[in-house]
Write a structure and sequence with these properties.
mainly alpha; 2 domains; 62% helix
Length: 341
């Protein structure tokens, strides 16, 4: 059957498996190697439990992303459905092999795995196998087509002006795809920032990316990616939260100038929630506060700015930027005559 589909079947009975014979050889190692070398794994359950199949090969296929199909003889599957009704499988099923098979099928069929088991009978095996393999073949063609579309999009993104509305939608999808190539994702972020059309949800998803480089590029291009002016305070709070929760200790330092680029007053308010444990963040924040000292004097911003300057100079050795920050702090603090007034 596999030959008819253009493939080469590997199985233990024919010896067509990946293996190494040496002093430290093991069936487990050889089984893992075979799965990693395969284009498609087909697990066919008849009546007996194969320990290596379920404890090694299936786990290896799951972990490595190798496509696989699970086929089960209909009589065996119906017996499993009957046996699993027992609350205590260990006590209810004396045969060890059958008990292991029920437990394995139950795990495959459970909410934690949510894998699909396809029943067959002896007369329909070839038809069922062909049908299920054809489904994976179709998925493979779809994936190939999607890859080609992304490659075309990557070329277009080098000239931002060429991107259509549909291209920009695809660029957003590409940018947030955690499994896609980082270089392509960065191209998408830069294109979106240039065209200023990104949704808020996309920006927040990029700020929460597992890729440090994606987070940094998003922060650096925040003013282009997020266009609402003045910015929504809730959005800025989300940005600050993402920086505080990031493993990248320098992300807060990068975020500070981007916040000020959006809006000075909003940035000062948002910075009150920022983790300033990193000295670079304190230095950058104090510098921008000093540059915008007049804004720091207005309304409730004065009190917030005093608090921020105080955090910046706390437990930090004397230096040029520290002296400048302390000078600004003194000017912002209320004097006795102001208190008398």
């Amino acid at each position: 059957m596999t030959n008819e589909l253009g493939g080469e079947p590997w199985h233990y009975l024919s010896g067509q498996i990946s293996y190494q014979n040496k002093a430290t050889a093991s069936w487990v190692t050889n089984s893992k190697s075979t799965v990693n070398s395969a284009d498609l794994c087909v697990f066919a359950i008849l009546a007996d439990y194969g320990e290596i199949t379920w404890t090694v090969e299936l786990q290896q296929a799951l972990g490595s992303g190798i496509p696989f199909i699970i086929l089960c003889l209909d009589d065996t599957y119906q017996e499993y459905l009957t046996l699993k009704r027992y609350v205590d499988v260990d006590a209810a099923i004396s045969d060890l092999g059958k008990r292991n098979l029920v437990q394995t099928l139950s795990e495959i069929d459970s909410m934690s795995r949510q894998l699909t088991i396809v029943p067959f009978n002896m007369d329909s095996f070839v038809e069922v196998y062909r049908r299920e393999a054809a489904k994976l073949f179709a998925l493979g063609l779809d994936a190939l087509a999607a890859r080609a579309r992304k490659e075309s999009l990557a070329m277009l993104m080098q000239d931002h002006a060429q991107l259509t509305t549909q291209d920009l939608v695809a660029a957003e999808e590409l940018a947030v795809d955690e499994f896609e190539e980082k270089a392509w994702r960065k191209l998408a972020i830069q294109a979106l920032a240039h065209r200023e059309t990104t949704s808020v949800d996309t920006v927040l998803a990029l700020l929460s990316s597992r890729e440090q480089g994606i987070q940094r590029l998003t922060v650096d291009n925040l003013a282009g990616l997020y266009r609402q002016r003045p910015p929504d305070p809730a959005f800025l709070d989300d940005c600050v939260r993402s920086a505080n929760e990031s493993d990248d200790v320098g992300l807060a330092r990068r975020l500070i100038p981007s916040l000020f680029e959006l809006d000075v007053a909003s940035a000062i308010r948002a910075a009150a929630g920022l983790d300033l444990s990193e000295i670079g963040a304190r230095r950058r924040l104090s510098g921008l506060l000093a540059e915008n000292e007049n804004a720091c004097r207005t309304d409730e911003l004065r009190e917030i700015s005093i608090e921020l300057f105080s955090k910046c100079v706390l437990k930090t050795e004397e230096s040029g930027w520290i002296r400048r920050a302390k000078d600004c702090l003194e000017r912002l603090k209320p004097h006795d005559e102001e208190a008398d007034d």
